[in-house]
Amino acid sequence: AQSVSQHNHHVILSEAASLELGCNYSYGGTVNLFWYVQYPGQHLQLLLKYFSGDPLVKGIKGFEAEFIKSKFSFNLRKPSVQWSDTAEYFCAVSSWGKLQFGAGTQVVVTP
Amino acid sequence: EPEVTQTPSHQVTQMGQEVILRCVPISNHLYFYWYRQILGQKVEFLVSFYNNEISEKSEIFDDQFSVERPDGSNFTLKIRSTKLEDSAMYFCASRPADRGIYEQYFGPGTRLTVT
Q1: How distant is the Cα of B28 from the closest Cα of chain A, in angstroms?
Q2: Radius of gyration of chain B (CA)
Q3: B1 pLDDT above the threshold of 90
Q4: What is the pLDDT, as a whole number, of residue B40?
Q5: Separation of first and last alpha carbons in chain A
Q6: What is the pLDDT of residue A27?
Q7: Residue A41: count of CB within 10 angstroms of its CB
Q8: Is A96 in CB contact (< 8 Å) with chain B?
Q9: How far is A91 from chain B (nearest CA, A)?
């Protein structure tokens, strides 16, 4: 069965610091990979996605993620965070159809 | 930009009551999903729906749950006899018909509180 694990449940960092959130998945076949973000009081929004091709994908708001097939990982990065990046971040995997989510990482950026 | 909408935003009900959560997917989308997120837990898949039938459902989606697309625009989730453990945020999602596009678009969610 598919599973998705996110390494950190809670991250606190200062503005301008770099962010990296880990995501590992287990699945034997072709997968599609996603990072979703949920800002306080808002719905899930897609940050970026990987289907095929260049394993380094760029998303909205300066986020990027790297797919490393050999490590079954899809880590999210942002070189310099802002206070407005305070949110919960979810890694998700889909082989076809349904999404399987990780537990989420709550990111708090302090001014 | 078109969005998935959900109503109500918050529903409070007593245990044993039936509830219907409503979703209006994006108009040209043909795949529809329900997910739920119990407070403090991960987002869990409930059911997917395509071509007027359930295409996949999780273990959570037992006989108490049903989905319907009654009028070509709404997509509903019904819980026949709610339990305390049904309290959660319920998200509807939809995606386009093109099988090459797997991105799902989520609604804002309905917070269901069962007392």
Answers
A1: 17
A2: 13
A3: no
A4: 83
A5: 41
A6: 79
A7: 6
A8: yes
A9: 10
Q: List the single best residue of A98, A101, A106 to mutate versus B (max B Cβ within 10 A).
A: A98
The total number of residues shown for chain A amounts to 111
Search chain B and give the residue with CA nearest A105: B42
The single residue listed with the structure tokens 């990296």 is A20
Name, in order, each residue with C-beta under 8 angstroms of A96's C-beta and a sequence gap of 6 or more: B102
The answer to whether residue B96 scores a pLDDT higher than 90 is no
Q: What mean pLDDT is predicted for residues A59-87? A: 95
Which helix (H) or strand (E) segment is A56 a member of?
strand A56-58
- In the predicted structure, residue A40 carries a pLDDT above the cut 90: no
The answer to whether the CB atoms of B106 and A36 lie below 8 A apart is: yes
* Closest Cα in chain A to B38: A103
Q: What is the pLDDT of residue A37?
A: 95
For B78, residues 6+ apart whose C-beta sits below 8 A from its C-beta are: B18, B19, B20, B21, B65, B66, B67, B68
Residue type, A8: N
Asked whether B3 and B107 are in contact (CB, 8 A), the reply is yes
Q: Can you read off the two tokens belonging to residue A8?
A: 């950190």
Residue type, B113: T
Say how many CB pairs under 8 Å bridge A and B.
50
